[in-house]
Structure formats: structure tokens, C-alpha cells
Amino acid sequence: MMRIIAFTNNKGGTGKSTLCGNCAHWLAQAGQRVLVVDLTSQRTSSLLLLGDIDDGDEDESILALLRSDPQVEIRDLIYESDKGMDVIPSHVLMANGVEQLSQLGVGREKILNDHLIQLQPDYDFVLLDSPGDLNVLTTNVLVAANLVVIPTRLNRTDFSCTEVTLRFIRQAQPLIGSRDCRVVINMLDDRYLPGNAWAGSHTGQLYQLAQERFGDVLSSVTIPDSTDIRTAFDRGSVVWEYKPESLAAQRLRRLVEVELCGV
Fold first, then answer.
1. Strands across the sheet with 3-7, in order?
2. Cβ(211)–Cβ(218) under 8 Å?
3. CATH number, domain at 40?
4. What is the pLDDT of residues 111-159, one digit of tens each?
């Protein structure tokens, strides 16, 4: 059965697009049939997985689906990435899509899901790179998703935004039903983890605070603050292509195994 996983947070800079792209690549290299849908105006996943793709026509991006045009076929929007997966790219004018969605009537929250259902025979995993706002497009993402991954950095501002995101998901339950969520601490030096050298520092205490605030929703897997991930991204690559033996690559693989695949 096709599994749909959303990467979301209402705060930028948490690394959700980079996590989405790297997790998608690992799944593809493991033999899974993977589709990434970029729903952000920054187009980070599109650029990472498709290279310097032009902004192009809105009708060749995810925007075409959001108009609820019955003539649009989702398969016509799919691009093949040289990283072993398929991608539906975003567009810089995603705000137009949100506005158009907001003007639609009953059923507007299910437009994305209605299109993705058509792809069930084609993919094992669909990864959604969600917008950085909590709006009707985010609700579309939540309706479609089986699992919501919420990356956060280790600071109080990110914690507050993550709590807002979790509250938004809970408040949407009458519409979307219950959703499994996992908060993932991203860009963390392992020395701040319990039992390590800096655990007693202010930042180390923030990790303990995260455990208290997020409880069972907090993933046991943390992603290190890694120059390997950033360098790979700057080169238009993912960490397994750049340094597959790195700690970052190992930890991202563990995230996929534990949270996305349930190993």
C-alpha cells in the first residue's frame, strides 16, 4: 500500500525540505518506488532533485492541480529525477495556488488527496514537502498523509512553532481524522544529548525540555548539525552521493528505518 509522508512545520529554517529530499533518495536507493511532491514556493526539493529546473509554466507544476481543473492529469506533471525517483515540482507563485484553493467550496481540503489516490499502483512512498504556513494547502497535505514528520531545531522559538503545528493538526482532526506525528530534532550536535559531554549545558537542558514537551511524539532519532549535508546540498546532491559513510548519512538512514518504514 502506498504510504504518504508529510514533512511540515510552520517555521522556516528547520530543514524539512533537505530532510524530505535525503529521505526520498535513501528510499529510492533501497528499491522503493518514490514520488516527491514539492508544495513550497522556495522550490528547494524541486531544485535538489531536478537540478536547475526553470520556473516554467504554472500548468507544468503542482499549481495545476490546485485549480481543481478536471482536465489536469497528475501523471502529466511528474518529472523523472536522476536520483532514482519521480518529482512533481513546485512553482514560485504557490501563493496563487493557496488563494485559489481558499476560494473553492466544499471538498477543497481533499483535492490533493483525490489526485494522489490515482497513483496508488505506481508508488510505495509519496513524500510531501509542505509549505511553511498553516493554511488550506497544509490541510490538503494533512488529509493525504499517513505520517507527519515535523523537523525542529533545539531552541524555544522552534519549540513554540512546533507546538503550534501540532495544535493545528489536532484541531483539524474532525476533518482529517487522527494522524501519526513525529517531531525530529534536526541540526543537533550529539554532545548535547543525555549522557554526553555537554548534556548539562543550556542547550543540553533544552533537549530535556523537548522530551518533556513533546513526549511520545518526539522521535528517538536526532539528525546532526552536519557540514556534509550542507555541502551536498550546495553541490546539488544528497548526502549519500557526497559522503555515504558520514554520521549524517547513517542517522538519516536510521530516521527512514525507524520513522518512515517502522523498522
1. 79-80, 86-88, 34-38, 125-129, 3-7, 147-152, 180-185
2. yes
3. 3.40.50.300
4. 999 999 999 999 999 999 999 889 999 999 999 999 999 999 999 999 9
